[in-house]
TrEMBL record:
<dbReference type="InterPro" id="IPR011057">
    <property type="entry name" value="Mss4-like_sf"/>
</dbReference>
<dbReference type="Pfam" id="PF04828">
    <property type="entry name" value="GFA"/>
</dbReference>
<keyword id="KW-0456">Lyase</keyword>
<keyword id="KW-0479">Metal-binding</keyword>
<protein>
    <submittedName>
        <fullName>Glutathione-dependent formaldehyde-activating GFA</fullName>
    </submittedName>
</protein>
<comment type="similarity">
    <text>Belongs to the Gfa family.</text>
</comment>
<keyword id="KW-0862">Zinc</keyword>
<dbReference type="GO" id="GO:0046872">
    <property type="term" value="F:metal ion binding"/>
</dbReference>
<dbReference type="GO" id="GO:0016846">
    <property type="term" value="F:carbon-sulfur lyase activity"/>
</dbReference>
<feature type="domain" description="CENP-V/GFA">
    <location>
        <begin position="7"/>
        <end position="109"/>
    </location>
</feature>
<dbReference type="InterPro" id="IPR006913">
    <property type="entry name" value="CENP-V/GFA"/>
</dbReference>
Amino acid sequence: MNQQTVYEGGCACGAVRFRATGAPMRVGMCHCLTCRRVAGSAFGSYVIFDRDAVTLSGNTREWRSSEHGRRHFCPLCGSVAFMVYTDRAEIDVPIGAFDQTGLFEPTYELWCKRKEPWLPKGVRREYDEERPH
Ligand SMILES: [Zn+2]
Ligand SMILES: [Zn+2]
């Protein structure tokens, strides 16, 4: 376990960068209204790491998106940067923020009751709303 993979990425303008070390805890998609809006896209997709596995550089602004959720974004370019929680040590990093493609594939989808009808169904585990933590 002394050779750990490092994944790097950042926001669209480059002011915010991150390094994630080791395997993620899970990878998922979310169709909830907040994820749709912050990404301006049909859904959000995230790689969830232990909070300690990710180091960040650059400034972000944060807002409270739910009781325990805090969403961060780059104040310069507006990119979704990451999401953290006040009740657990996880960090959700957007798949699209990584420098490379093909690193991670989601294994589940949340908030499928908000899923766009033109998206494929039954590809991976689907939850109507949240999954239990
Ligand atoms: Zn930026
Ligand atoms: Zn969501």
